[in-house]
Amino acid sequence: MKQVVLRHAIDHKPRAADFELIEAERPDCPDSGVLVKLSHISMDPYVGSRLRGRHMGEAPPQAGVEAIPGHGVGEVVESRSETHAVGDVAYVMEAGWREFAAVPADGARKIDPEGLDRSVFLSSLGMPGLTAWAGMTQLAGVGEGDMVLVDAAAGAVGGCVGQIARARGAAEVYGIAGGAEKCALVERSYGFDACFDYKAEGWADQLAARVAGRLSVHFENVSTDMLTLALSNFKPYGRAVLCGLAAQYHADAPPAGIPTGLIIGKRAKLHGLVVYDFYDRWDRFMDEVAPLVRSGALTIAEDRAEGLEAAPAVFERLMDGANVGKALVAL
Ligand SMILES: NC(=O)c1ccc[n+]([C@@H]2O[C@H](COP(=O)([O-])OP(=O)(O)OC[C@H]3O[C@@H](n4cnc5c(N)ncnc54)[C@H](OP(=O)(O)O)[C@@H]3O)[C@@H](O)[C@H]2O)c1
Fold it and tell me: Which residues have C-beta within 8 Å of that of residue 22, sequence separation ≥ 6?
């Protein structure tokens, strides 16, 4: 089978040239487990840190040998488990950038893709959607009357944050994204009230003119600088969810500190979010978000390519923040 591996150990922002496609032995179906033929694999920012040994203490994959880690969706082609049958479609956390994944049965979560593209289960109905749902509903407790801001708003997490907040009754939902194309997507397809392009002149003043002193919820995906800007527009007792620092994962210098004075002045509450803590609430997430996706009330664009050999280039785009929507590869 084909799989993508690291060409060499790295300690820099991953580039496409750091990867290679190799031919590897197709794994056997494990005892009590399943063999899944993957149809889609997910490209996620945390993998860039993981490849450098900087994610949650997890070791990087061995260069030249182990597949790049990542979530995937596929079909069970062999089963030695009573819970899974050949033909079942499953979401696999430990899928990897390869054609087949051999995993324990509880590592292959059965899904019902009827009427949906399976790729949705890597996006709004996968780990990014769960992250957004957890932040909005379990941590920030977003509801009627809230005014919400999120950055990296065109991505899967950011796009779900705004749309879930809206479905929960938020009064106004704002995004920040890099470039006119992303902002148009956020406003027209995702239905945010406005999106501010941080690459355009005067954007922070325009944001303040719209929301200053009224923001009640912020979801941070990008940097402590963005968090500071959001906090400065907070009303008292706002809630911020700290989810990611996409602009800082591969920076040479350490990030700016968090703005303690602002947090005190705004009486703000900050929650750190790690999606792993919410995997046991997956069913609740699906019960709430799947109807939104099925009805078309929640959509996420895809930055998609075909074929495993395209994975390194898609990943390089993600590492550069050039992806428009959920980065993934269809095999
Ligand atoms: N805490 C958790 O458990 C958890 C779980 C899942 C994801 N996350 C985090 O959630 C965030 C969004 O994830 P996602 O999967 O939906 O990704 P994404 O938003 O599709 O991609 C990351 C985005 O970050 C923005 N960005 C800003 N500065 C960047 C830079 N210097 N380099 C690269 N990207 C930059 C880019 O959008 P713009 O051009 O619009 O700025 C880029 O498209 C990430 O920070 C991710 O690590 C955290």
Answer: 2, 3, 4, 5, 64
> Average per-residue pLDDT in the chain?
97
How much distance in Å is there from the Cα of 220 to the middle of ligand 1? 9
Domain 2-123+301-330 has CATH 3.40.50.1970: no
List all residues 6 or more positions away from 156 whose beta carbon is below 8 Å from its beta carbon. 123, 124, 126, 128, 129, 132, 300, 325, 326
Q: How many CB atoms within 10 Å of residue 305?
A: 17
Give the closest residue (by CA) to ligand 1 atom 33: 321
Decide: 247 in ligand 1 pocket, CB within 6 A.
Answer: yes
Q: What percent of the chain has pLDDT above 90? A: 97
- Right CATH for 127-276 from 2.60.120.260, 3.40.50.720, 3.40.50.620, 3.30.70.920: 3.40.50.720
**How high is the pLDDT of residue 184?**
98
User: Has residue 119 got a pLDDT over 90?
Assistant: yes
Cβ of 251 less than 6 Å from ligand 1: no
Q: Is the pTM of this model over 0.90?
A: yes
Q: Quote the CA–CA distance of 5 and 3 in Å, as a whole number.
A: 7
Ligand 1 atom 19: residue of nearest CA: 155
Taking Cα atoms as reference points, which of 38, 65, 67 lies closest to residue 50?
A: 67
